[in-house]
Amino acid sequence: MKYFRKSNIIAYLLLCVLVLTLAACGASDSSSESSKGNEQNGSTEQTVKLRLGQSKSANHPVSQGIDKFAELVEEKSNGSLIIETFHDATLGSDREVIEGTQQGTLDLASSSTPNMSSFTNLFIAWDLPYIFENKDEVYKAVDGPAGEIVREELENSGFKVIFFPDYGFRQVVNNVRPVRTPDDLRGLKVRTTNSPVEIADYTAWGANPTPVAWAEVFTALQQGTVEAEGNSYSLLWDTKHQEVLDYATEVNYNYSSDIVVMNKDIFDNLSSEHQEIVMEAGQEAVSWQRDLANEREAEAKQQFIDYGIEVYEPTEEEYQQWKNEVEVVWDEFVVPGKAEPEYVDLILETIGKTREDIFNN
């Protein structure tokens, strides 16, 4: 009996030693993994994850620019700050993700600027027909004092502006008839954004403007609820709108910038290092994205032509007619409380032209 008791005691002690050894190894491995994680991150900071929602298709240049931004943020922060991107209206329409970001239920959002006009009337000036006629003019204004004023103004609505992706110029497209001049557009039911300026544009051209949420436009064209819309070649192609369109008219009537914003309180609560990384990544992403957007727009136009869409480029006289018929929109909106005259003048001064240069006065 003594022998067996002694053996049991020895076995028990050996078992205890084994358990303690394994526990020590496990703790050592866990500590090692944690240390490696911190070494790889270059920081002991806890990983911060944010969500960004927007409505465009994942392969659109704006979406690709947003993904590039997220990639740069993760790279620059060594993985301590991660932005998860959600495209194709997964988290809601432009309006829904913007409102969610303002309320803080979503961290970041992207939207075309016409859908932001309810937060600041400064975007009304950006929407004025033909205020921008080429990308050089756009970039001078957006990157200059006019863009900085927008950034400051939107902070009052609870947003931190990160960057302005290049969305592109809107063209007139439809599935009813060739459109060469505004006369050919008269009576057509045209989908517009909620921008009061775009609605006024189509009213001036004699069409019937109908605001429709972006996610519903394809079906609206298919069912005849609307017969036309204004949008960029790349967005139209990437969302397969060529399947429900027959004609395009290249009039460049409106440049619609996109905008990426973060909830201001969420931004302010980031570490100063993360704040700097976010803004730096935004600057680098927009430079990369603009090159991509310009290449993609030219490519998408050719895809339209190859698909069989009739693309019409107005003559110089016809183009001037498109412009002159919407000068009344400037009369309506370039007034205090809408497109502030001083702000419009700032944009025109920045890009080096006057209202008289735009319209045939």
Describe the protein's topology.
Elements lengths: L1 H40 L6 E6 L7 H16 L4 E6 L7 H10 L4 E5 L9 H6 L7 H8 L2 H11 L3 E5 L5 E6 L14 E4 L3 H9 L3 E4 L5 H7 L4 E4 L1 H6 L8 E9 L2 E6 H6 L2 H36 L2 E3 L3 H9 L2 H7 L7 H11 L3 H4 L3
Parallel strand pairs: 1-2, 1-3, 6-7, 6-8, 9-11
Antiparallel strand pairs: 3-10, 4-10, 5-8, 5-9
The CATH homology group name of the largest domain: Bacterial extracellular solute-binding protein, family 7
Poorly predicted runs of 5 or more residues: 1-43
Give the class-level CATH name of the largest domain.
Alpha Beta
Number of extended strands: 11
Side-by-side strand order of the widest sheet = 7-6-8-5-9-11
User: Based on the structure given, which CATH architecture of the largest domain is correct?
Assistant: 3-Layer(aba) Sandwich
How would you spell out the order of helices and strands?
Answer: HEHEHEHHHEEEHEHEHEEHHEHHHH
Q: Beta fraction of the residues?
A: 15-25%
CATH level-3 fold name of the largest domain: D-Maltodextrin-Binding Protein, domain 2
Number of helices: 15
Helix content: 40-55%
**Cα shape:** globular
Main sheet overview: 6 strands, mixed
| Rg, Å, rounded | 27 Å
